[in-house]
Amino acid sequence: VQNVQPHALKDARAYVTWEQDGAAHRADCDFIVGADGFHGVSRKSIPAEVLKEYEKVYPFGWLGVLSETPPVAQELIYARHERGFALCSLRSRVLSRYYIQVPLTDRAEDWSDAAFWTELKRRLPEQVAGQLETGPSIEKSIAPLRSFVAEPMRYGNLFLAGDAAHIVPPTGAKGLNSAASDIYYLYHGFLGHYLQGDSTALDRYSEQALARVWKAERFSWWMTNLLHRFPQGTETDLRLQRADLDYLFSSEAAQASLAENYVGLPY
């Protein structure tokens, strides 16, 4: 569809218009859930004097390759290396996804498959690199890293959810988890509104969702700072980074905290 636009967000009844196959359409509704992604129209429909946006852009991206090869391990492998971060992940028994940290000035087409595999192996432990099965890429792209939060997540009858309201660096694996928690709060809010006539949870949606979102943002920011090489980083920064890693590997309390945040905080 084209030209999607929400209307009457502060009125008793909202509605959405759009065009499809050359015809105009309209849907009248009690509420609108804006789960249309970072570039969608929902967040942009909130007046600028109401919306507050917070953003941090990181000075690097992830070059990702998808290949029809068995994963090198049955668990994720995060690698911190002097040449930059690397990640080994899996999609299935025969499909793997690998990433390496690259400058924002790089383009995916600058990297041949051979160059990618060579650089990835450099950043992995020798034992892992020796077991890595390579092959032609079936997808290759560079994703810039950023943290982003929009407040509030409710404006009148419009509720923002997922990437429409917040973006996290993928290091913490919290993107889909955070979107799911938004929907959890909305689901119970709508149950209360329609089944019990109680709108308390809907009225608290933005407050509740943002409290959890900011914790996910903090964790993803921490993981990103822990594992990446920053272009302007000093020797002091590197020593602090190593001390943070040493503490993590030596403290059960630190490991439990990482596990709690990585799996996902309670709703």
Can you walk me through this structure?
This protein has 267 residues and is of the alpha+beta class. The protein folds into two domains: 2-51 and 152-263, 3-Layer(bba) Sandwich (FAD/NAD(P)-binding domain); 56-145, D-Amino Acid Oxidase, Chain A, domain 2 (2-Layer Sandwich). Helices cover 35% and strands 30% of the residues. It is built from seven helices and twelve strands. The protein has helices at residues 113-123, 126-131, 175-195, 200-203, 205-227, 235-250, 252-263; strands spanning 2-7, 14-20, 23-29, 32-34, 52-67, 77-79, 86-92, 95-102, 137-151, 154-155, 158-160, 166-167. Strands 6-7-8-5-9-12 form a six-stranded antiparallel β-sheet. A three-stranded antiparallel β-sheet has the order 1-2-3, with no helix packed on it. Strands 4-11-10 form a three-stranded mixed β-sheet, with no helix packed on it. α3 runs antiparallel to α5 (205-227) and α6 packs across α7. The two termini are 34 Å apart. The model has no long low-confidence stretch (mean pLDDT 97).
Quick check: average pLDDT? 97
| Apparent shape | globular
What's the CATH class label of the largest domain? Answer: Alpha Beta
Number of folding domains? 2
CATH topology of the largest domain: the name is FAD/NAD(P)-binding domain
Order of helices and strands: EEEEEEEEHHEEEEHHHHH
Main attributes of the structure:
single chain; 267 residues; alpha+beta; FAD/NAD(P)-binding domain; D-Amino Acid Oxidase, Chain A, domain 2; 6-stranded antiparallel sheet; 3-stranded antiparallel sheet; 7 helices
